Amino acid sequence: MLNALNPVSNINSFIEYFRNHGYSIRPELFYDKQLLDTIRLDESHFVFYRLANTTPIQGNAEKLQIRRWAPLEAHTTPLAEGVPPFSDKGSMESYEIGTFSYGRYMEFTDRVDFETIDPVIAHYTQEYAIVAMETLDLLARDALTTVAQAAYANAKANFSKLELGDKPSLNDLRVIALSMKKQLVKPRNGNRYHVIGTPDFYFDMISDPLVEKYMTINQTTKGFYEDMGPIPPMFGLEFYETMHIDDSGEYTTSSGTFLRVYKLKQDGVTYEYKDLDAATYKKAAADNYVRDSRTGQKASYIPNLTKWDIPAGYSELKVHRIFVLGADCLTRTEIAGQGNAKMYVKPLGSAGVLDPIDQRQSIGFKINSVGFGSTRTEAVVCYYCVPSQANLI
User: Quick check: 188 and 326 in contact, CB under 8 A?
Assistant: First the structure.
């Protein structure tokens, strides 16, 4: 009943059951349990967050310092008789991962009842449970993106060279895995590197020549053709699918932030590409609201929201970020004992003189002191490609 991915009607039925059968429950405990249980049960659905190895910070420190020791090399220099050899010397690299707090809240008027479990509050608590999980997963994904080595489909030199038709290739992924092996990056588990991709990515990969050859030789992969999911493990790679991935045409270089766009030329066959500069084309949004992609209605308020002003006739080039990951790719840290999310319920009158006639109340959540970083940056590669179905209008 308390799973955030359940429909709201289930939560409302749960509430009505308690009301109709004479049971009572403290609302703040209901809301707090809903949030914490959801994060604990459903974190496996967010593939980036679950990649992290957790290393808590002890005491009141704000940063986790990690040391990586350089290995000692073998050598075959013979010893001279009576002369002691030179002493070995060690060396190390250190990494710091900071922690930050995150949270959101929503206010309600006195028409919403906090004395019992109100369906409106239950609904938005469910929403916040999803937002809390998504926040952690987004932080993990951003940490990987920040340190990732870049690789581009069709051997393109950089992001600004990508075009329609630069589809993903299994051979590109094999080259990435080979590079990791040469850098002595260990596989994540089972002697396999992990590949995290989108449904559009796997739509093209299922018809990749190497994959088709594998399917022809291996007669036990019928299920992968029946289901629209990732391809089976092969060539030391294990594949995972997610919808929570960046597929925008925005990219950043030392010169600034840009958006890659395209339009069909007058010949109706070829395309014209252009890179918009954020200094000119990215502006403050009119109302700071993100629209629901299904209905176009206001969905979420984001302070200081900015949007790209794309010239008429152009469309954003949707470029998918596919991650290839090895061992030690991601570390999550938190102050010991303060890493859990907590739900806050502020009933009428809790604001004191700031709410003199009990008109305001709120719910919210807070994630205390969490941070993400990588202890082996060579274990993170971001593969940029343009799946065939990503830019269909």
Answer: yes
